[in-house]
Design goal:
Radius of gyration: 24 Å
Strand content: 5-15%
CATH architecture: Alpha-Beta Complex
Helix content: 55-70%
Number of strands: 8
Distance between the termini: 45 Å
Shape: globular
CATH class: Alpha Beta
Length: 417
């Protein structure tokens, strides 16, 4: 058997193995997927909103914090040198004693978070991006996990807010899948990122670790590694829902994913001691190594698909020109190229498509979303057809950035790279 065929078969079996592995975890934990521990006390939680030039969304973010169904909270907005009307909007809430406003010169999100932590009075610190919104039950669903002293942080379940175009529709399905996968990773104790919207920390742990890394591309991933390196666990509440505004342009999505994926590579190098280390269980032995293999498989699959499509187009064009623009002969040539019986690749594609549909269904079920095919069929179709190629494109840009960049730059939600 040729090397290319062996490699292709290996990639297929790897993808099937990982998919079936997580399906088995789901089956084992399906009865407790939606169960969070009921809190026996309600300690003070400091909600921090770092904000930079978010005049369009900061009001809704603050209102969502005020509306939280939690009896003991303080809301602190850290204005990181905004040059629009953000400060004036926040001052309206200060005047009615609903928030505390801290103003500082621009230093990036991690810098704003660290500034807020120093002023926070709560036993726990909850973070909210200025373009994200708590649902009323979010905080009360997370707080019970901290009654286990080994828990250092709890992540929320993020959903794309009001998707309007095809880019946000694909991300809507992606985030639904992330809710499903993050909950399964919670059970396996292998979460390696603590997303900004809605995540909650034990404040003493953040102080012990010196706060967020202000020079990291992805401070939320860096702090996750450091929390686990210090011996604490990261858990997830599937019921703690937070809506977030996803990029609605291809340019915005590319900038976001360059930051995410380049940050993942940076942190993988920085915390390479996690890889294949039994001390870190499933995270070190399975999730981190397979994440890199998945990227390789993703890129190889996309390149192969694009190559095959181009080959068909080129061959068809040559045939079209060679026969003097005889349409009947061209159609015969196309039929000849497509008249191939089922192969192992075909069967794999069918099996993986069925698994993908099943995973989307389980994600919707886990996230408490209705399938609503009549209204959201475009969401599912776009995700199944375009997600692999789109994410491969994002990884291509991220790896290109890593290849040409110098020292990692500070970023604010990916606005500068």
């Amino acid at each position: 058997m040729e090397f290319e065929a062996i490699l292709l078969l290996g990639m297929m079996y790897f993808m099937l193995y990982c998919s079936v592995f997580w399906l088995l975890v789901y089956y084992d934990k399906r009865k407790v997927m939606k169960i969070d521990p009921i809190p026996t006390r309600f300690p003070l939680v400091s909600i921090l909103i770092p904000v930079w030039n978010a005049e369009d969304t900061i009001r809704a973010a603050i209102d969502s914090c005020i509306a939280l169904d939690y009896p003991n909270k303080e809301i602190i907005v850290i204005n990181d040198g905004s040059t629009d009307k953000t400060k004036e909007i926040c001052e309206e809430y200060v005047n009615s004693d609903k928030i505390t406003l801290l103003n500082k010169t621009n230093g990036g999100k991690a810098s704003a978070m660290n500034f807020g932590i120093k002023h926070a009075k709560g036993e726990y610190v909850s973070c909210l991006d200025a373009d994200s919104f708590f649902r009323p039950n979010a905080l009360i669903q997370m707080i019970g996990y901290f009654e286990d002293s080994a828990v250092g942080a709890v992540t929320s379940s993020m959903k794309v807010y009001n998707p309007r175009n095809w880019i946000q529709m694909i991300q809507w399905v992606e985030y639904i899948f992330a809710i499903y996968l993050r909950r399964l990773m919670h059970f396996m104790n292998c979460l390696y990122v603590i997303p900004g919207p809605g995540s909650t920390y034990r404040r003493d742990v953040l102080l012990e670790l010196g706060g967020f890394d202000e020079h990291s591309l992805t401070e939320d991933m860096d702090i996750a590694f450091r929390i686990q390196k210090a011996g604490y666990r990261i858990t997830n509440s599937i019921n703690a829902e937070v809506d977030t505004i996803a990029p609605d342009t291809l340019r915005g999505l590319i900038k976001q994913r360059i930051r995410w994926y380049a940050g993942f590579c940076d942190n993988s190098v920085k915390y390479k001691s996690f890889f294949l280390n039994p001390k870190y269980g499933t995270l070190g032995l399975f999730v981190l190594p397979t994440s890199f293999i998945w990227v390789g498989v993703l890129l190889a699959s996309s390149i192969t698909l694009i190559y095959n499509v181009l080959e068909i187009l080129i061959t068809t064009t040559k045939a079209y020109l060679a026969v003097g623009f005889d349409l009947n002969l061209v159609l015969a040539k196309i039929s000849e190229m497509l008249a191939v019986g089922p192969t192992y690749i075909t069967w794999f594609a069918v099996i993986f498509l069925l698994i993908s549909v099943l995973v989307i269904y389980l994600g919707l079920k886990s996230a408490g979303e209705m399938i609503n095919f009549k209204q959201k069929y475009k969401f599912y179709a776009l995700h199944l057809v375009g997600y692999t190629i789109l994410i491969s494109l994002m990884w291509f840009f991220a790896l290109s950035y890593l290849a040409v960049r110098g020292k990692s730059e500070k970023t604010w939600k990916g606005t500068t790279i």
